[in-house]
Specification:
Layout (H helix, E strand, L loop, with lengths): L6 H9 L2 E5 L4 E3 L7 E7 L2 E6 L5 E7 L4 E2 L1 H6 L6 E4 L3 E7 H10 L1 H24 L3
Antiparallel strand pairs: 1-8, 2-7, 3-6, 3-8, 4-5, 4-7
Helix pairs in contact: 3-4
């Protein structure tokens, strides 16, 4: 995701980040909940699950260090599209919507980079659900 940012945009984003820690089994975000932050996984592993048509949880991603998540809710205002659970001890950097809105006022390309990432992630999720269907 970061390769789409200029140096100034990257500095602005980094300044807005807050460090959070999670233990194995902790839920970072819950499918269907309101979301007002996006996250970057700096250490550890996180598993992403979505509910299929029968209401059963299907693992769609396993995220490793450097992964980025939570962008869908912050960009669209829609509820979280997946539940993410810490598989190992994790540290994540959080960027809340108010801070992101401030950044995009002076750096509109940040929003465009996030939108492109969101579109690619949405396609990956659909493909994972199809692959995991019995």
């Amino acid at each position: 995701m970061f390769e789409g940012f200029t140096e100034d945009e990257l500095v602005a984003v980094i300044r807005g980040l807050k460090l959070l820690t999670f233990e194995p089994g902790d839920i970072l975000v819950t499918e269907g909940a309101a979301g007002a932050s996006l996250f970057i996984l700096t250490t550890g592993t996180v598993k992403a699950f979505v509910k299929d048509a029968r209401g059963e949880s299907v693992k769609v991603h396993e995220l490793a260090e450097g992964s980025f998540f939570g962008e869908i809710s912050i960009l669209t205002g829609r509820p979280r599209t997946a539940t993410l659970t810490a598989a190992t001890p994790c540290e994540v950097l959080e960027l809340d919507k108010a801070t992101l809105d401030g950044i995009t006022q002076s750096h509109p390309n940040v929003l465009e980079v996030l939108k492109r990432f969101h579109e690619a992630r949405a396609q990956d999720t659909v493909e994972a659900i199809i692959r995991n269907r019995p």
